[in-house]
Amino acid sequence: MAVVTAAVVMAEGTDSLVSRKLNQKSPKGDFGLIEIRYTGGVPERYKRNPNTSCLICKKLIYRRPVEMERNHGRSFCGSACFGVFCRKEKPCAICGKPILSGDNKKTCSRACANKNRIGMNYSHRPLRDKVKNQRSLKIRLLNLRGKRCQRCGYDKIEILQVHHKDRKKDNNNLGNLELICPNCHYEEHFLENSWLKNVNGVG
Fold first, then answer.
1. Cα–Cα–Cα angle for 39, 44, 45, nearest 5°?
2. How far does CA 86 lie from the centroid of its chain?
3. Cα–Cα nearest to 181, from 193, 163, 168
4. Is the dihedral of CA 182, 187, 191, 192 positive or negative?
C-alpha cells in the first residue's frame, strides 16, 4: 500500500488528521490501495481574498457578490454576530436597564414592576368566583324552597342542582331559579332535543 501525503496549509485552530483510502493506480504503476492523508485546513491557492467585513466585529471575510446583493450589503462572520444584529432592545421603564423588546415587557425585574404599579388605579371589578356563587345560590334555595327536588321530591341535598328556567346563567333572580335533582335537570335540557327521537323503532 502506498501512502501519499497532501501538503496543505493548516487553518487557524485546526489540528485534525483525516485519512482516505482509494483503490486506484499507485505511483509505481500498479493498482493497489493508496492512502491519502490530509492534515486539515484549506490550501492557500483555494483561499479567497476578503471582499467585505463583518457588520458587528469588523472581521475581514469573503462573501459571494450574490449573497451581498441579497442581504443589501450586510455581512456577518457567523451566527453569533448575526444574533447580536437581530437583538432589539428597549430601556426598562424604571431603571433604564436594556431589555428585549420582543418579550412584551415594560420592566426588567419584579422589583421594577412593583415600583411601576405604584399609584395605578384598577378600575375593573374583580371577577366573581362562579363556584362560590353557585354554592351560595344553592344554600339560599335550600332554605327557601325546602331540602328536596321541587319536581319529584328527591331529598338527597348533596346532589341537588340549581336550574335556570330561562337558560341564562347570569339571571340569578329567585323567580328564575329552581332546585331540582340531576334526573329532572337532565330531562329539562336534553329530553326535547334527544337524537333518539329520529331513530326508527326507538322514539
1. 120
2. 19
3. 163
4. negative
Q: How confident is the model at residue 10 (pLDDT cuts 50, 70, 90)?
A: very low
- Asked whether the beta carbons of 99 and 105 are under 8 A apart, the reply is yes
By the 8 A CB rule, do 198 and 188 touch?
Answer: no
Cell numbers that stand for 98 in this block: 436594556
Burial (CB count <10 Å: 0-12, 13-18, 19+), residue 181: buried
> Does residue 3 carry a pLDDT above 70?
no
Would you kindly state where each structural domain of the chain is located, as residue ranges?
A: 2-46, 130-191
CB 115 within 8 A of CB 106: no
Record the pTM.
Answer: 0.36
Written as one letter, the residue type at 108 is C
Residue 159, SS3 per DSSP: helix
* Residue 73 φ then ψ, to 5°: 80, -5
DSSP H/E element including 136: helix 130-145
pLDDT, tens digit, for every residue of 80-105? 999 888 888 889 989 989 888 777 88
Residue 92 and residue 99 in contact, taking contact as beta carbons nearer than 8 Å: yes
Q: What confidence tens digit (pLDDT) does each residue in 40-61 have?
A: 566 666 778 888 999 889 999 9
Q: 18-25 and 52-53: which strand pairing?
A: unpaired
